[in-house]
Design goal:
This protein has 496 residues and is an alpha/beta fold. Helix content is 37%, strand content 22%. It is built from 18 helices and 21 strands. The strands form four sheets. It has an eight-stranded parallel β-barrel with strand order 1-2-3-12-13-14-15-16, surrounded by eight helices. The chain is elongated and about 80 Å long.
Length: 496
Amino acid sequence: MPHSETTPSKFVPRTRKVRILATLGPASNTPEMIRRLAEAGADAFRINMSHGTHEDHARAIEIIRGLEKELDRPTTILADLQGPKLRVGQFDGGGAMLEKGQRFVFDRSREGGDSHRVNLPHKEIFGGVEEGTRLLIDDGKLVQRVISATADRIETVVEVGGRISNNKGVNVPDVVLPLAALTDKDRTDLAFALDHHVDWIALSFVQRPEDVAEAKRLIGGRASLLAKIEKPAAVDRLDGILELADAVMVARGDLGVELPPQDVPPLQKMIVEAARRVGRPVVVATQMLESMIEAPTPTRAEVSDVATAVYDGADAVMLSAESASGKYPCEAVTMMNSIATSVEHDPSHAERVHFTRTLPEGTTADAIAQAANTMVGTVGAKAIVCFTSSGSTARRLSRERPGVPLLVLTPSVKTARRLGILWGAHAVRTRDIENFEEMIAKAKRMALRHGVARGGDRIVITAGVPFGTPGSTNVIHIVRLVGDELERHRRSEEGR
């Protein structure tokens, strides 16, 4: 894992603040490709538990951890649980054409379907729908509205027709279904992911805060939890979900199925703002550079889409099929890195990213974080150096969206890895400090070593006393790195 303090660092903090989360898959699961993705700009890797075997995933995790040691950079791994998958049954002949205005029935019979009926093997849907409820088939390509429903029969009228075929997905956007977010498969996958020490668990099919509470109970602090906001019911209970989750994801693909597409952009902004206000990392995901699955360059609309998420201050942007199964995985990461870097160099970026007001809570740690950001502007500091055990101080500082590098020093490898999706944070594992003098000396040394400041620059330091006590942030200090310190540091590095 990360370097000792007696060896030169290979860790070079990225100047880009927003983080890139790249999904691994058949196009990108070799050691060579994972290395190329990291070098192209991927800060974190998503393992999609919907595809592949546990053996595949274990191999990918092992590759990432090996690369982490080689590059001397804490690297984040997110395991994304599949969640319940609602699908229609089988048809005689494989499918049927449905015409607008016709009646169609979903039932519990296992007989092959036809143009009048088909099996729906999910009793929870029968118990959850009522007259007027919409059923969306095949990502919303077909729309049917419920006329009547019993425990074993749902009669609908077709509002948008087309071909319905075997095992097509079903979305029920208008009601909260009596379904747990965790299936038996998810529980098995969760146990596997925790045993392999992933850093984040992404929870799918979140409908209510209770879904998040149940998953956190099972995780037991062994990883952080990211709640995917992909259903209208989750949007309606967003405040409660944000209170319990460690982070959220704007899963625009599923939201775009269950909601009118024109509703998704304002919802994305609302979710990002709500998460930022309470200091939860927020990831914007799905179809960001979709055309790069097949083409080496994105459309201008896609570039603008990614740029919007960066201007809004999202902590991370995610690639799905673009990096997992597309023809140009490295080019997709490179493009996303280029877009984000260009946006962050826009003089108006700082003003726009601070459009969301993040008022501090009445705590010492929040007061310190707000003061640190203010001091940066007042004294022209070039970096903030944050000492933390749990990562909570880093999250508070990141919430302020400082305009300078945020160097996070922690003795915990788990904390360093979990901060990989946090806006602007460059986490380094290092030995803990024991006193004030050591804090000052280490902050100076690490700022120089990692290139976030030079001789003559000021840095702002935050820490907690007693040192090494989680949640005790109560110290803020400004120091200047003088020229002879820089020279001493250079001689020290050259002599090793």
